[in-house]
UniProtKB/TrEMBL annotation:
<keyword id="KW-0444">Lipid biosynthesis</keyword>
<keyword id="KW-0275">Fatty acid biosynthesis</keyword>
<keyword id="KW-0511">Multifunctional enzyme</keyword>
<feature type="active site">
    <location>
        <position position="113"/>
    </location>
</feature>
<keyword id="KW-0963">Cytoplasm</keyword>
<feature type="region of interest" description="ACP-binding">
    <location>
        <begin position="247"/>
        <end position="251"/>
    </location>
</feature>
<dbReference type="InterPro" id="IPR013747">
    <property type="entry name" value="ACP_syn_III_C"/>
</dbReference>
<feature type="domain" description="Beta-ketoacyl-[acyl-carrier-protein] synthase III N-terminal">
    <location>
        <begin position="107"/>
        <end position="184"/>
    </location>
</feature>
<keyword id="KW-0443">Lipid metabolism</keyword>
<dbReference type="InterPro" id="IPR013751">
    <property type="entry name" value="ACP_syn_III_N"/>
</dbReference>
<keyword id="KW-0276">Fatty acid metabolism</keyword>
<dbReference type="GO" id="GO:0033818">
    <property type="term" value="F:beta-ketoacyl-acyl-carrier-protein synthase III activity"/>
</dbReference>
<keyword id="KW-0808">Transferase</keyword>
<dbReference type="GO" id="GO:0004315">
    <property type="term" value="F:3-oxoacyl-[acyl-carrier-protein] synthase activity"/>
</dbReference>
<dbReference type="Pfam" id="PF08541">
    <property type="entry name" value="ACP_syn_III_C"/>
</dbReference>
<feature type="active site">
    <location>
        <position position="246"/>
    </location>
</feature>
<protein>
    <recommendedName>
        <fullName>Beta-ketoacyl-[acyl-carrier-protein] synthase III</fullName>
        <ecNumber>2.3.1.180</ecNumber>
    </recommendedName>
</protein>
Amino acid sequence: MYSRIIGTGGYLPEKILTNQDLESMVDTSDEWIQTRTGIKQRHIAAPDQTTSDLALIASQNAIKAANISVSDIDLVIVATTTPDMIFPSTACILQNKLGIAGNSPAFDIQAVCSGFIYALATADMFVSSGKARNALIVGSEVCSRILDWNDRTTCVLFGDGAGAVVLTQSDTPGILSSHLHADGSYSQILAAPASIQSGKMEGTPFITMEGGTVFKFAVRVLEEAVLEALNSNHLQPADVDWLVPHQANIRIIASTAKKLGIPQEKVVATVAQHGNTSAASVPLALDQAVSDGRIQPGQNVVLEGVGGGFTWGSILLRW
Ligand code: ACO
């Protein structure tokens, strides 16, 4: 038995923050941001919008696209770095908002920008082993809440949003293979290193990052992760119809594709409009390419992601 994505959905908050808007907030320029990152704008959640609110709309869109009833969902996984609260999990909150409280297991996965890859790989194990029939997998983030809006080296990079997929049992693939990695010795180069001590927050909850180190690490491991997925299925880069990468930076995306020999026309890029939405970036990009008809049945699609931890991974699927 295999698992197959039968519906995708996305949601982006209404408010758009452009690079020009940022010019009046920190010492930066549209030209610097676009040249270094490819980002033109990002969406920002309203003050009263939570990660589960964004997840709810993306989930409803995915469930509608899958043409199933919400009561058919028997597993809920949310990948997020910006949960609504310490606990309960955002997945439990989402399950309740969907009106299916008690119908399924529900849990969060925390792998930062690789979160959706980790969550989809986990759901695949449930679905392909028969432990779940219709899994809802969501990447949802309000990155804007953990940004220091006075720090130009980080605040220009991120945005808010949610993407979701429904994964169901299938006699044919579907997901061909998934490959997950982590190296905790790199935990310091990208972190939001706050902790709670005796009811008080210690350290900063804002994203801190060694940009150059992250850049080099990302390009290296993403190439390896995509090759790992291709090699384990006896495929070549030329067999890839669509590469759907984590949307951190257009230069990371372009360097990875170039090293692999995958032409830019086969790469789905949303970073210009969305910025880096962490765990939401891959499902949002996937949803866009499915909705606009670029991704077609029978095509080979590679998803990849890298993020804090460090964590990284890839998933190869036949659409
Ligand atoms: N506007 C204007 N100038 C800036 C800005 C800004 N927003 N941010 C930094 N600068 C300045 C720096 O202060 C520095 O000035 P200096 O030379 O006077 O000291 C100069 O620009 C160059 O800074 P660098 O950090 O060397 O610039 P770089 O070319 O490395 O680009 C960037 C920085 C865009 C962060 C890049 O390193 C990068 O993309 N790294 C990957 C990080 C990433 O994508 N993180 C996302 C999370 S991780 C993930 O999702 C994989």
